[in-house]
C-alpha cells in the first residue's frame, strides 16, 4: 500500500500539468489520456531514482524558502542596479571554492538550484570527490566571506532537512 502513495501524487500532478498545458477542451478522452500518460511516465521513471528523498523538519524548509526568496529578491535588485550603472561600475568577477559537508544528492541538487537562482552566482564546478563546489561570482567583493555565507544560509538548513 505504501508504494501506491509514492507514485500517486506525482501521477496526479503530471496529469493536471498536461491538461493545463495541452490547451484543448477538457473532456473524458483528454482526462483519460492525461492520467494514462502520467502513470506511464511515473512508472517508467521510478527505476531512474536510486532512492527517494526523505525530507524532514517542515519548519526548517519554510525558513529556508523564506531565506531563498529574500536573497533572490536582494540579488535581483543588486543586479538591476549594476546593469543601470554599468559603464560607471567596476565589476570584479571571480571564482570561489566552497567546502561542502552535505552529501545527500537531493540536498545538493537543491543547493545548486538555490545558487543558480540568484543573478550573479553560478554553480561552476563539482569535483567527483563531492567535498567542495566551485562558484563563479559576478562581482567578487573581497570583504564578503562566501564560504560562511553559503554554508550558514543554505548548506546547514539543507543538512537538517535531508541528513
Automatic annotation (TrEMBL):
Protein name: Sodium:proton antiporter
Transmembrane stretches, start-end: 12-44
Topology term for the membrane: Multi-pass membrane protein
Organism in which the protein naturally occurs: Advenella kashmirensis W13003
Broad class of where this protein is predominantly found: membrane
InterPro entries given in the database record: Cation_antiport_E
Gene Ontology, cellular component aspect: plasma membrane
GO molecular function: monoatomic cation transmembrane transporter activity
Pfam families the UniProt entry points to: MNHE
UniProt KW keywords: Cell membrane, Membrane, Transmembrane, Transmembrane helix
Annotated compartments: Cell membrane
Similarity comment text for this entry: Belongs to the CPA3 antiporters (TC 2.A.63) subunit E family.
Domain of life: Bacteria
